[in-house]
Specification:
The protein is an all-alpha fold and about 110 residues long. The chain has one domain. The protein contains 5 helices and no strands.
Length: about 110
């Protein structure tokens, strides 16, 4: 007898494992696209640090949530799924460093 694989569950697990990196990509796009668009308008340049701060707070909150859920899954899951939980945990940690690294220049460099 063959064993059926639940692809929906697997895809969800993989997306969860990559969720920290997906949050980082979303933050990166929001920060750089918004900066480019707002710098094109000379009157909106003062909004850029506020937007970057808001996007960074949201991204950090999402990454902390991923980190907490991944730690919970790491304690509860079997050995096969622990790899994906560990991947989510480390991905969220790396993404947290990247998000903070992207936001730092907004504090001490001119926006445009």
């Amino acid at each position: 007898m063959t064993r059926r694989i639940d692809h929906r569950g697997f895809i969800g697990e993989v997306l969860f494992a990559l969720s920290g990196l997906l949050v980082w990509v979303a933050h990166f796009l929001v920060v750089y696209v918004a900066t480019a668009l707002l710098c094109a308008r000379t009157s909106a340049g003062a909004l850029i640090p506020v937007l970057i701060l808001f996007a960074t707070v949201l991204a950090v909150a999402a990454l902390v949530a991923v980190f907490v859920v991944a730690r919970r899954k790491l304690r509860q899951e079997s050995s096969g799924r622990r790899f994906l939980a560990r991947l989510a945990l480390f991905g969220a940690a790396i993404a947290l460093v990247a998000v903070i690294w992207e936001a730092m220049p907004a504090g001490f460099l001119p926006s445009c």
